[in-house]
Amino acid sequence: MRVKICGIIQPQQSLAIAALGATALGFICVPTSPRYVTIEQIQAAIAPLSDKIDKIGVFANSDITEISHIVTTSGLTAIQLHGDESPEFCTQLRQALPQVEIIKALRVRSLEHLQTTNNYIDVVDTLLLDAYHPQQLGGTGKTLDWQMLQEFKPRLPWFLAGGLTPDNIIDALSKLHPNGIDLSSGVENSPGDKNLDKVALLFQRLNTF
Ligand SMILES: O=C(O)c1ccccc1NCC(=O)[C@H](O)[C@H](O)COP(=O)(O)O
User: Which residue range or ranges hold the N-(5'phosphoribosyl) anthranilate isomerase (PRAI) domain (predicted)?
Assistant: First the structure.
């Protein structure tokens, strides 16, 4: 299973978190986020990492020129679209960056809204389900309604996100079967400052599951 730790700011934490077992690290390229990182910060965080680790840039409603510039200059290997990007936008992004994994995040508002993931099946590689918050785009610590996801079995691999912590992860995985999990605030001291003891506890719990 893929394990993504998102919202990394400090280069030394990226190496430590990869060493603890993360398969993917997320870098927030959304300027309004307290976890926002510049191209230079991403380069510094990515430099010591092995090729096996996925380096995911998180964007929200950015244009293709900007995404392409950040991805190609920083060394990111995947793009997570966390805003209101349409399937048409995803198709154009694929044409611009054919080698890069595209992950479409959906901030799930309702069961009906969840069905909109069907529109992305042919145009992205991976889906990510996050919790909806009226004021914040992500990193909210808010948990999804797992009951609502019981029947969610898309044709694409998917990440479960939203309020996951070392304390609730086993409960989540005993109810749902995502291909990956994504944690941010549940393993932090404060936005962008990851708590390595909590990250270690997460992998300890995952290893016993
Ligand atoms: O984390 C942010 O600050 C953020 C800001 C704007 C768009 C997306 C953002 N995060 C996206 C993520 O992938 C987070 O890992 C995801 O929302 C889960 O966060 P959390 O509930 O804190 O585990």
Answer: 3-204
Provide the residue count of the chain. Answer: 209
Strand partners, 109: none
Measure 182 CA to ligand 1 centroid, in angstroms: 9
Q: Of all protein residues, whose CA lies closest to atom 5 belonging to ligand 1?
A: 138
Q: 193-194 and 188-190: which strand pairing?
A: antiparallel
Q: How many whole angstroms from 155 Cα to the centroid of ligand 1?
A: 24
Domain 2-181+194-207 CATH class label: alpha beta
Q: What is the pLDDT along the chain (209 residues), one digit of tens a residue?
A: 999 999 999 999 999 999 999 999 999 999 999 999 999 999 999 999 999 999 999 999 999 999 999 999 999 999 999 999 999 999 999 999 999 999 999 999 999 999 999 999 999 999 999 999 999 999 999 999 999 999 999 999 999 999 999 999 999 999 999 999 999 999 999 999 999 999 999 999 999 98
Q: No. of H helices and E strands in the chain?
A: 7, 10
**Domain parsing of the chain, residue ranges:** 2-181+194-207
